[in-house]
Amino acid sequence: MNKSEGHTSKEKPVVYIRGLHKSFGENHVLNGIDMDLHKGENMIVLGRSGSGKSVLIKIIIGLMQPDEGIVKVLGTEIHKLDKKELIQLRLKIGFLFQHNALYDSMTVRENLEFPLVRNERTLSEEEINKRVDEVLEAVELKDAAEQLPSELSGGQEKRISIARTLILKPELILYDEPTAGLDPITSVEINKLIMEVKQRYKTSSIVITHDLACAKQTGDRVVMMVDGKFIKEGDFEEVFETEDQTIKGFYDYNFTQ
Prior knowledge:
Elements: E1 15-24, E2 27-37, E3 42-46, H1 53-60, E4 68-73, E5 76-77, H2 83-90, E6 93-96, H3 108-119, H4 125-138, H5 154-166, E7 172-176, H6 184-201, E8 204-209, H7 212-218, E9 221-226, E10 229-234, H8 236-240, H9 245-254
Parallel strand pairs: 3-8, 3-9, 6-7, 7-8
Antiparallel strand pairs: 1-2, 1-4, 4-5, 9-10
Helix pairs in contact: 4-5, 5-6, 6-7
């Protein structure tokens, strides 16, 4: 058994992808992706820059259309939804941007209130405050509520971004390079927080990264992406116990950057 909650074959995958292709002119970015993300699982998608990781995420949340293939998210074929249906589905998906994307002119509390006020208009002020306090406690930054993003460290800013991702209680979280630009100690803290989020909120997650420490700490299952294809999957040790020079090269590349 891996670190994820056990799943049965009867449970529908949270994300189900078959035969996914995407090209931009002659640039074939995704070349036949098959993927199942199970309930309660953290799945790591590893790959170098330009391997197709970000395009995969954009297709999963409906920002791009596939050229071929089936993409089901939370049981729904996402590219058959109209605009209103897509907006409703996205409320169940948390997306952690690589560069945090907090509003500089808003305090931490206002940044967290914003998605609630915009998307859950029936909530009272008391309910909004309770939800904000809950996610601030979850990321251990209750004292930062009245600060501006510019007053936060890089690690604190990432924590607030995770808190904002949690505020709508998503079923699925997509992490885009969650440790990018962070020092090693802060990266370890963010990796630990990703695991705590999974346990506390029972989320399923896809973590896009090229950081092997992040993959090892947070991943129940790791898939290695090269040239728009998944070439190997398993737990961390299974993926990297190999004589495949492409995978060995990625491991070496990771520790020489």
